[in-house]
Amino acid sequence: MFVLLSLLAIVQWVAASSCPQLDLDFSKIADGTSPFDIGFTDVWCGQNAIIQGGKMDLSLNKKCGPDISTNLNVQSGLFEVDLETSWGSGVVTAITLFSAGTGEDKRDEVDMEFIGTDVTTVQTTYFVEGVHVPGATQSVDFQVASNTSTSRHIYGMEYTPDSISWYIDGRKVNTVLKKDGVPFPTKPVDLNLSLWDATEFSEWAGKVIQILQIHPDIYETSS
Ligand SMILES: *[C@@H]1O[C@H](CO)[C@@H](O)[C@H](O)[C@H]1NC(C)=O
Ligand SMILES: *[C@@H]1O[C@H](CO)[C@@H](O)[C@H](O)[C@H]1NC(C)=O
Protein backbone atom coordinates (compact mmCIF):
# COMPACT_ATOMS: atom_id res chain seq x y z
CA MET A 1 0.00 0.00 0.00
CA PHE A 2 1.56 3.27 -0.98
CA VAL A 3 -1.31 5.61 -0.38
CA LEU A 4 -2.49 6.11 3.13
CA LEU A 5 -6.17 6.81 3.09
CA SER A 6 -7.66 8.13 6.23
CA LEU A 7 -11.07 8.96 7.45
CA LEU A 8 -12.26 11.79 9.55
CA ALA A 9 -15.99 11.69 9.89
CA ILE A 10 -17.58 14.76 11.28
CA VAL A 11 -21.24 14.27 11.73
CA GLN A 12 -22.19 17.32 13.61
CA TRP A 13 -20.39 20.44 14.42
CA VAL A 14 -21.63 23.30 16.54
CA ALA A 15 -19.86 26.56 17.04
CA ALA A 16 -22.05 28.22 19.59
CA SER A 17 -21.57 31.74 20.76
CA SER A 18 -23.84 34.71 21.11
CA CYS A 19 -22.88 35.71 17.58
CA PRO A 20 -22.13 34.23 15.11
CA GLN A 21 -23.46 30.68 15.25
CA LEU A 22 -23.12 27.75 12.91
CA ASP A 23 -24.52 24.26 13.34
CA LEU A 24 -23.73 21.69 10.67
CA ASP A 25 -25.42 18.31 10.70
CA PHE A 26 -23.97 16.39 7.78
CA SER A 27 -26.76 13.83 7.90
CA LYS A 28 -28.97 16.64 6.56
CA ILE A 29 -26.56 17.82 3.90
CA ALA A 30 -26.68 16.32 0.41
CA ASP A 31 -23.86 14.07 -0.77
CA GLY A 32 -21.39 15.93 -2.92
CA THR A 33 -22.06 19.35 -1.37
CA SER A 34 -18.84 21.30 -1.25
CA PRO A 35 -17.67 22.10 2.29
CA PHE A 36 -16.69 25.46 0.84
CA ASP A 37 -20.30 26.29 0.03
CA ILE A 38 -21.46 25.77 3.62
CA GLY A 39 -19.09 27.85 5.69
CA PHE A 40 -15.62 26.32 5.43
CA THR A 41 -12.55 27.88 3.87
CA ASP A 42 -10.08 25.77 1.93
CA VAL A 43 -6.75 26.42 3.64
CA TRP A 44 -4.97 23.50 2.01
CA CYS A 45 -5.91 20.39 0.01
CA GLY A 46 -9.64 21.04 0.16
CA GLN A 47 -10.20 18.53 -2.64
CA ASN A 48 -9.66 15.81 0.00
CA ALA A 49 -12.64 16.97 2.10
CA ILE A 50 -15.76 15.26 0.81
CA ILE A 51 -19.31 15.20 2.13
CA GLN A 52 -20.91 11.81 1.61
CA GLY A 53 -23.10 9.35 3.48
CA GLY A 54 -24.13 11.78 6.20
CA LYS A 55 -20.62 12.81 7.16
CA MET A 56 -17.61 14.66 5.92
CA ASP A 57 -14.56 12.58 5.10
CA LEU A 58 -11.08 14.04 5.16
CA SER A 59 -8.42 11.90 3.55
CA LEU A 60 -4.65 12.05 3.50
CA ASN A 61 -3.17 10.65 0.33
CA LYS A 62 0.19 10.82 -1.37
CA LYS A 63 -0.49 14.35 -2.57
CA CYS A 64 -1.71 16.06 0.57
CA GLY A 65 -3.92 16.14 3.63
CA PRO A 66 -6.68 18.69 4.10
CA ASP A 67 -6.82 21.71 6.37
CA ILE A 68 -10.17 23.45 6.36
CA SER A 69 -11.30 26.35 8.48
CA THR A 70 -14.41 28.25 9.46
CA ASN A 71 -14.63 31.94 8.91
CA LEU A 72 -16.43 33.05 12.06
CA ASN A 73 -13.94 35.08 14.08
CA VAL A 74 -15.26 33.88 17.43
CA GLN A 75 -14.25 35.85 20.52
CA SER A 76 -16.02 33.51 22.90
CA GLY A 77 -17.74 30.23 22.20
CA LEU A 78 -18.06 26.47 22.39
CA PHE A 79 -16.84 24.41 19.45
CA GLU A 80 -17.90 20.78 19.22
CA VAL A 81 -16.93 18.23 16.60
CA ASP A 82 -18.36 14.72 16.36
CA LEU A 83 -15.61 12.70 14.78
CA GLU A 84 -13.83 9.48 14.13
CA THR A 85 -10.07 9.99 13.92
CA SER A 86 -7.57 8.67 11.48
CA TRP A 87 -5.05 5.96 12.37
CA GLY A 88 -1.61 4.77 11.30
CA SER A 89 1.95 5.91 11.89
CA GLY A 90 2.70 9.54 11.08
CA VAL A 91 -0.87 10.68 10.72
CA VAL A 92 -2.28 13.44 12.90
CA THR A 93 -5.96 14.31 13.17
CA ALA A 94 -6.32 17.81 14.57
CA ILE A 95 -9.05 20.12 15.78
CA THR A 96 -7.56 23.56 16.26
CA LEU A 97 -8.80 26.97 17.31
CA PHE A 98 -6.54 29.43 15.56
CA SER A 99 -6.49 33.22 15.49
CA ALA A 100 -6.38 35.07 12.18
CA GLY A 101 -3.20 36.20 10.51
CA THR A 102 -0.32 35.02 8.39
CA GLY A 103 2.89 33.15 9.05
CA GLU A 104 4.62 36.06 10.71
CA ASP A 105 1.77 36.97 13.03
CA LYS A 106 1.91 35.78 16.59
CA ARG A 107 -1.20 33.66 16.67
CA ASP A 108 -3.17 32.22 19.56
CA GLU A 109 -4.01 28.53 19.30
CA VAL A 110 -5.90 25.84 21.23
CA ASP A 111 -5.65 22.20 20.11
CA MET A 112 -6.98 18.69 20.41
CA GLU A 113 -4.76 16.30 18.46
CA PHE A 114 -4.76 12.58 17.87
CA ILE A 115 -1.68 10.75 16.67
CA GLY A 116 -2.35 7.69 14.58
CA THR A 117 -0.06 5.48 16.65
CA ASP A 118 -2.03 6.09 19.86
CA VAL A 119 -5.69 6.00 19.02
CA THR A 120 -7.06 6.06 22.56
CA THR A 121 -5.46 9.36 23.58
CA VAL A 122 -6.27 12.97 22.82
CA GLN A 123 -3.44 15.46 23.30
CA THR A 124 -4.48 18.96 24.34
CA THR A 125 -2.39 22.09 24.29
CA TYR A 126 -2.54 25.85 23.72
CA PHE A 127 -0.28 28.65 22.60
CA VAL A 128 -0.30 32.37 23.26
CA GLU A 129 1.09 34.46 20.42
CA GLY A 130 2.66 31.36 18.93
CA VAL A 131 4.46 30.04 22.00
CA HIS A 132 3.69 27.79 24.94
CA VAL A 133 3.11 29.61 28.21
CA PRO A 134 6.35 29.46 30.23
CA GLY A 135 5.92 27.19 33.22
CA ALA A 136 2.64 25.70 32.05
CA THR A 137 2.38 22.01 31.14
CA GLN A 138 2.90 21.93 27.39
CA SER A 139 0.60 19.09 26.46
CA VAL A 140 -2.00 17.37 28.59
CA ASP A 141 -3.19 13.96 27.46
CA PHE A 142 -6.55 12.34 28.13
CA GLN A 143 -7.68 8.80 27.53
CA VAL A 144 -10.75 8.26 25.41
CA ALA A 145 -12.79 5.21 26.34
CA SER A 146 -12.41 3.45 23.00
CA ASN A 147 -10.37 3.38 19.81
CA THR A 148 -11.02 6.87 18.44
CA SER A 149 -10.49 5.64 14.89
CA THR A 150 -13.34 3.16 15.08
CA SER A 151 -15.77 5.05 17.32
CA ARG A 152 -17.27 8.50 17.16
CA HIS A 153 -16.92 10.88 20.07
CA ILE A 154 -17.77 14.51 20.57
CA TYR A 155 -14.72 16.64 21.25
CA GLY A 156 -15.21 20.17 22.49
CA MET A 157 -13.22 23.29 23.23
CA GLU A 158 -14.72 26.27 25.00
CA TYR A 159 -12.95 29.54 24.46
CA THR A 160 -13.83 32.48 26.69
CA PRO A 161 -11.99 35.67 27.71
CA ASP A 162 -10.98 34.13 31.05
CA SER A 163 -10.92 30.36 30.55
CA ILE A 164 -10.26 27.54 28.08
CA SER A 165 -11.92 24.17 28.65
CA TRP A 166 -11.64 20.87 26.82
CA TYR A 167 -14.47 18.32 26.65
CA ILE A 168 -14.85 14.67 25.66
CA ASP A 169 -18.43 13.56 25.05
CA GLY A 170 -19.76 16.53 27.02
CA ARG A 171 -17.54 15.84 30.03
CA LYS A 172 -15.16 18.64 30.93
CA VAL A 173 -11.66 17.12 31.21
CA ASN A 174 -9.56 20.23 31.74
CA THR A 175 -9.81 23.98 32.28
CA VAL A 176 -7.12 26.63 32.21
CA LEU A 177 -8.07 29.89 33.92
CA LYS A 178 -6.66 33.28 33.07
CA LYS A 179 -4.36 34.52 35.82
CA ASP A 180 -2.90 37.96 36.41
CA GLY A 181 0.51 38.33 34.85
CA VAL A 182 0.35 35.00 32.95
CA PRO A 183 -0.04 35.07 29.15
CA PHE A 184 -3.49 33.93 28.00
CA PRO A 185 -5.06 33.62 24.53
CA THR A 186 -7.30 36.57 23.79
CA LYS A 187 -7.58 36.80 20.01
CA PRO A 188 -10.75 35.85 18.08
CA VAL A 189 -10.40 32.35 16.66
CA ASP A 190 -11.68 30.04 13.96
CA LEU A 191 -12.01 26.29 13.96
CA ASN A 192 -9.65 24.32 11.74
CA LEU A 193 -10.05 20.64 10.98
CA SER A 194 -7.03 18.95 9.55
CA LEU A 195 -5.42 15.67 8.75
CA TRP A 196 -1.71 15.82 8.19
CA ASP A 197 1.48 13.84 7.83
CA ALA A 198 3.77 14.72 10.75
CA THR A 199 6.69 12.70 9.39
CA GLU A 200 8.74 15.72 8.38
CA PHE A 201 7.89 17.66 11.52
CA SER A 202 9.30 15.14 14.03
CA GLU A 203 8.92 11.55 15.09
CA TRP A 204 6.28 12.53 17.63
CA ALA A 205 3.55 10.80 15.65
CA GLY A 206 5.70 8.09 14.10
CA LYS A 207 6.76 7.82 10.49
CA VAL A 208 4.65 7.30 7.44
CA ILE A 209 6.76 4.55 5.97
CA GLN A 210 4.56 3.90 2.97
CA ILE A 211 4.42 7.53 2.01
CA LEU A 212 8.15 8.03 2.46
CA GLN A 213 8.67 5.46 -0.28
CA ILE A 214 7.14 7.77 -2.80
CA HIS A 215 8.93 10.87 -1.63
CA PRO A 216 8.92 13.65 -2.74
CA ASP A 217 5.22 13.69 -3.67
CA ILE A 218 4.08 13.82 -0.09
CA TYR A 219 6.06 16.92 0.60
CA GLU A 220 3.65 18.92 -1.44
CA THR A 221 1.84 19.03 1.88
CA SER A 222 4.63 21.05 3.47
CA SER A 223 4.12 24.76 3.61
C1 LIG B 1 -6.34 27.49 10.11
O1 LIG B 1 -7.02 28.21 9.10
C2 LIG B 1 -6.47 29.48 8.84
C3 LIG B 1 -7.40 30.19 7.85
O2 LIG B 1 -8.62 30.46 8.46
C4 LIG B 1 -5.06 29.34 8.32
O3 LIG B 1 -4.49 30.61 8.09
C5 LIG B 1 -4.22 28.57 9.32
O4 LIG B 1 -2.95 28.32 8.80
C6 LIG B 1 -4.86 27.27 9.75
N1 LIG B 1 -4.13 26.76 10.90
C7 LIG B 1 -4.04 25.51 11.25
C8 LIG B 1 -3.27 25.22 12.50
O5 LIG B 1 -4.54 24.61 10.62
C1 LIG C 1 -7.83 0.95 16.20
O1 LIG C 1 -8.52 0.76 15.00
C2 LIG C 1 -7.66 0.74 13.83
C3 LIG C 1 -8.54 0.72 12.60
O2 LIG C 1 -9.40 -0.39 12.61
C4 LIG C 1 -6.75 -0.48 13.94
O3 LIG C 1 -5.88 -0.48 12.82
C5 LIG C 1 -5.93 -0.36 15.22
O4 LIG C 1 -5.14 -1.52 15.38
C6 LIG C 1 -6.85 -0.20 16.45
N1 LIG C 1 -5.98 0.10 17.58
C7 LIG C 1 -6.28 -0.25 18.83
C8 LIG C 1 -5.29 0.13 19.88
O5 LIG C 1 -7.33 -0.81 19.12
Automatic annotation (TrEMBL):
Pfam families with a match to the protein in the record: Glyco_hydro_16
GO annotation terms (biological process): carbohydrate metabolic process
Gene3D superfamilies tied to this protein: 2.60.120.200
Occurrences of domain GH16 (ranges): 22-223
Residues in the signal sequence: 1-16
Superkingdom, natural source: Eukaryota
Keywords: Glycosidase, Hydrolase, Signal
Any one Gene Ontology molecular-function term assigned to this protein's record: hydrolase activity, hydrolyzing O-glycosyl compounds
Protein name listed in UniProt: GH16 domain-containing protein
Provenance organism: Umbelopsis ramanniana AG
Lineage: Eukaryota, Fungi, Fungi incertae sedis, Mucoromycota, Mucoromycotina
